[in-house]
Amino acid sequence: MSERLGDVRKTITGFLTMAIFVAVIFFAGIWYAGRNGEPKITTTTILNQLQEANELTTMEYHYTKVGEFENSLNINGWDIPLTRKSFLLTYQGELKAGVDMSKAKVDIKDHVITITLPEIEILSNAIDESSIEVYDESRNIFNPIKIEDYTTFATKQKQMVEEEAIENGIYSQAATKAQDAITKLLNLIPDVAQNYTVQVKFETAEEEHKEDSKDEPTEKQVEPSKKKDKETTQDSQKEPTKEPDRNESEEVGSEI
Predict the structure, then answer these.
(1) How far is the C-alpha of 202 from the C-alpha of 241, rounded, in Å?
(2) 104 φ, ψ to 5°?
(3) HSE-CB for 167 with a 13 A CA cutoff
């Protein structure tokens, strides 16, 4: 009886051991598969994250302005009397500054992700047409106001607003916000937040010039031996110079 109980216990113990072993392998496989399923941090994955933004707007500049247009017909720089036309109006607009993310570059080295951005630029500058109010508009039959006058006026006004925004430091403010926004965006990825340091910098004019000059061919890129062979071939193809005979030279002189 005791021998049978011993056999039963051995059998049960064997089944339990086998079940535990299978369970360990099963859960280990799930854990390993889950780990392998996580996206790896590469330059491609980071670029895809950044380029989803396309154009990253980090600063908006809202403005309300009063503008005046004036023009007269002229001859040789002299205004013709009774041809003056003008208008005075107010308008509102919005200027956006930021980064073109399609030009961003990524470098990953020693658990440091370095993002190199192009220079801050004006992404858009638009006047809200519904906000335009005309307060004074001349009606001159000799020099009537045309649509082109409003177009020219709007272009000049937007240029003035851009210059004003740049003087007020919109580029430096947009650059600081771009660095903060990109750092926070990448740190939303758990693997980046836990294992990497994110650095964001802007490409200088010198770096951009070096990058462009790499694609330009130079004389140094031609091997000396090949260059020499090429020159020899060209020289061999040249025909010997033929000296004009006396009769030919006399004919030329007579034609002159």
Answers:
(1) 59
(2) -70, 150
(3) 6
- In this predicted model, what pLDDT tens digit does every residue of 186-215 receive, in sequence order? 999 899 999 999 999 998 865 555 555 555
Two tokens, residue 13? 């113990």
Q: In the 8-state DSSP scheme, what is residue 238?
A: S
List, in sequence order, the alpha helices (H) in 38-133: 43-51
As a whole number of angstroms, the distance between CA 117 and CA 99 comes to: 7
Q: What is the pLDDT of residues 81-106, one digit of tens each?
A: 888 889 999 999 999 999 999 999 99
d(CA 145, CA 134): 13
For 151, phi and psi rounded to 5 degrees? -65, -45
| Residues present in the chain in total | 256
- φ and ψ at residue 186, rounded to 5 degrees: -70, -30
> Which residue is listed with tokens 């006004």?
157
Say whether pLDDT at 34 is over 70: no
Please report the sign of the dihedral spanned by the C-alpha atoms of residue 71, residue 72, residue 76, residue 81: negative
Residue, of 119 and 82, whose pLDDT is higher: 119
Q: Where are the beta strands (DSSP E) in the chain?
A: 55-71, 74-75, 78-79, 85-100, 105-109, 112-117, 121-137, 197-202
Q: Residue 54 has which token pair?
A: 């396309």
